[in-house]
Amino acid sequence: MKNKYGVINETIDEMVTYFSRLYSEHDTNLQGYKAKLFEINVRLDELSRTKNVYSLNTDYRKSVFSPISLEPEENEKEREIKKEIDTLQAERDSLEYKINEETIYLKGIDKRLKNLNSSKTELSTLVMDYGKKEEEIRQKDKEIKEQNEKEIKRQDETKKINLEEAEVKKHLKNILMLSTFDDTYYSTVLDKRIKKVIADNNRKIENVQGYIYSSPGRSKVLLDEIASNQKNMMLVIDDQLTRLNYNFDDEKPLKKMLDEYIIKMKDRHSDIPIEVKIDESMHKPGFDRYIVLNKLLGIFFDNIYKHSKAKKISFTAEEKDGTFLFEIYDNGVGLKANYMNGKEWYSGLNRAKELIYMINGELSLDGSKGTRVKFKFKNE
């Protein structure tokens, strides 16, 4: 293997060869220009003498009828000679410019060649002096390189750990915020739509007790209002129980759960058909993945029915080598390229991202033609 000196020396030799060849080419050009210039000068000298022969500057013809001399006139041959002289003079000027240009260029190349040869001599001297210390320097460089590589590796590992920790903290913060948001939401429902209704009903019951004998009609109206409030409150409670997955059976086989969920969606939204393809041999995932899957289905189907304006939905579920794969497609309005910009932190899609993170899964969304949601996770 060539050492550094050999590489540099070879490079200098290549440059010397290049500039020598370049010098030879331009010197050939220069000699050619000079030869052409010599020929032009000879021709100009010949033409100048010939022109004098044909010149009429000293020929003053006199009219037989007039003593006044006539102005000299150029004959055709003289005009041709003059035209050729002008052309040759222009060509001579061009050649003189090129000769001057090539001369300057050759001086520059010659200077480079001298510098290269001088550099080669200096390099040889430097290498001879350096030879004794080369091994020591090489060893030192090796130690420094190893230390730098170790430091870079340590910094990369530290950076990676810090990024992972920051990412984990970010997800944990989001999960905590979503949990707090849900607690606040359910507390608000309990306070405003259940506790307040119960308090109003209690006041109406007290009024009924006062009107039951004196105003039976008034009492009946109040009792009807109480009954209506109670019925509405039961609907609110049922809705909250559904949101909390109160009736979710985690012992149910996965395919049965998916079939029942799709049937429920078809019943609620009979105007939007759903094409279904569910793998018959899917195993039941662990409890945490089973719960997350149920929540994800709720988020994605809820988004379709609320926002997509879709006319058709397809749902696919399969298991390959211990990995569960799901795809939900609707032919609705799709998603904008920057669909997450301006999205509330508590939105369904943000919730889906955190749910996928909790089970170490992967999520992808394509909203270019309709909306295609793909997510997967391993059965760990």
Description:
The protein has helices at residues 4-54, 76-211, 216-243, 254-268, 287-308, 348-358, and strands at residues 274-278, 313-320, 323-330, 362-366, 371-378. The chain has 380 residues and is an alpha+beta fold. Helix 5 links the parallel strand 1 (274-278) and strand 2 (313-320). Helix 1 (4-54) crosses helix 2 and helix 2 crosses helix 3 (216-243).
Brief descriptors of the model:
380 residues; alpha+beta; five-stranded mixed β-sheet
What is the radius of gyration? 49 Å
The helix-strand sequence is HHHHEHEEHEE
First-last Cα distance: 53 Å
Number-wise, the strands total 5
Largest sheet: 5 strands, mixed
Proportion in helices = 55-70%
Number of helices: 6
* Class from helix and strand fractions: alpha+beta
Trace the largest sheet across and list its strands.
Answer: 1-2-3-5-4
Mean pLDDT: 84
Low-confidence parts, pLDDT < 50 over ≥5 residues?
A: 58-66
Overall 3D geometry? elongated
The percentage of residues in β strands lies in: 5-15%
